[in-house]
């Protein structure tokens, strides 16, 4: 489903996407996305994200440079980076956390995992962070596993749960606490019987 939606989305946006993001003015994406929907990602939210991406890329040249521009570290950096995309009236929904959010910022933490770690799963294109700086992407599957292992007592997949689980994993692997992410997620899915069967 996600591959199908991704192909449809990229087909609508045109190429090269990197150039189009910086060249097209705000508001250009909405007509191209009319009728597009994937789960809770509506055309309006995707258009708002693309407008914000274009603005950030025009201002900083790249997302990595935008992250570097925040000048802060840790969770504060996640919040500062996210704030670069927040504009009055723009509804990004769960795509990026808003100021003061108590959520786990799962999607941003997943993005950072892909950009920073380098292995058979993650391409690791960024050098601005090291794997030791990352936070565990928390969802219901990871939270269930973390409960079973005694890493957190949190009932919600929120920021506090994310910090507690990440701290516990840093004890096991200080240089790369997310090295277990893929296996943990699969274990959590299996426990909930949501793991796809071949």
Describe the structure.
With 198 residues, the chain is mainly alpha-helical. The chain has two domains: 2-81, no CATH class; 106-191, no CATH class. It is built from ten helices and two strands; from the N terminus they run αααββααααααα. Strands 1-2 form a two-stranded antiparallel ribbon. Strand 1 and strand 2 (41-42) form a beta hairpin. Helix 2 (17-23) packs across helix 4 (43-60), helix 4 crosses helix 5 and helix 8 (140-148) packs across helix 10 (181-191). The longest helix is centred in the N-terminal third of the chain and has 18 residues, at 43-60. 23% of the residues are buried.
> Low-confidence parts, pLDDT < 50 over ≥5 residues?
none
Average pLDDT metric: 90
The count of helical stretches stands at 10
Cα separation of the termini: 16 Å
Binned, the helix content reads: 40-55%
What is the string of SSEs from the N terminus onward? HHHEEHHHHHHH
Strand order of the largest sheet: 1-2
> Rg, please?
18 Å
Proportion of residues in extended strands: under 5%
Largest sheet: 2 strands, antiparallel
Number of E-state strands: 2
Q: Which features would summarize this protein structure in a list?
A:
single chain; 2 domains; 2 strands; 52% helix
Structure at a glance:
The chain has 198 residues and is an all-alpha fold. It has ten helices and two strands.
How would the blueprint of this fold be written?
Blueprint: H1 2-13, H2 17-23, H3 29-33, E1 37-38, E2 41-42, H4 43-60, H5 63-69, H6 75-83, H7 106-116, H8 140-148, H9 159-172, H10 181-191
Antiparallel strand pairs: 1-2
